[in-house]
Amino acid sequence: MGRKSPHIELMQLLLWMFFMYFASQVLFGIILSLFGDIEFLNENMQDPRIFLGGAVMLQVMAFAIPPLIIIRTSGRPYTDFIGLSKLTWKWIGITLFVFIASLFIMEILAVINGRLEDIIPNNSLILSEKEGDLFMNELVTTESYAQFFFMLLIIGILTPICEELFFRGFLLGSFLRISRGNKHFAVLTSSLIFAGLHLQPLKLLPMIFLGMCLGYLYVESKNLKYPILFHALINSSQLIVGFVLGPEAFA
What we know:
Elements: H1 6-33, H2 38-44, H3 48-74, H4 89-114, H5 116-119, H6 124-140, H7 145-178, H8 183-197, H9 204-221, H10 225-245
Helix pairs in contact: 1-3, 1-7, 3-7, 4-9, 4-10, 7-8, 7-10, 8-9, 9-10
């Protein structure tokens, strides 16, 4: 079987992602309807169990399945698309250093980015993001050990694996092939898409920076395990701080 054009593979990847995203919402709605009527669901959509269940379905269907479909339909081994090899202490150390340094840089970028609210204070995306942040803060500052465990499992581990497989392993890889190895173009373009798809305008600059850190870790190490580790550290550290400090973490 001949190789497909990288442009075609990129279009297929994005189309499958959007299709599976909407399919996950429909399927999750159908599953929920089996457990209660519409009025019950509307009153309980912010139940942690419903939120985390939806997060699992979204991550798996929108970000994990499309790359697997591309591999399956290409007839080529996964090693043609993504780099996976044994971890080394050198790159683990580099990943930890970048993680620690990025925490400070992202805080600065968040302050700068926050000025966007002064410019367009009543923007619907910003209002939606702030409402989502309040919900997430309540979720993260739980006193339930069981809820914290499942959040750590889903947000701290599953999400990094699925998103890095899609955004770095396949999306960035597609841009690398399209640009004939221009890593700066591939990293920047995939980072902009990564940040844009999160629909968080008040975190746009930190998300672009995060995407670039993840992207350069991947293209330089040629191993998807390092951006997964970095992403897991970012997500898990926020969960741990919220769980340990409680509401004071976001005061």
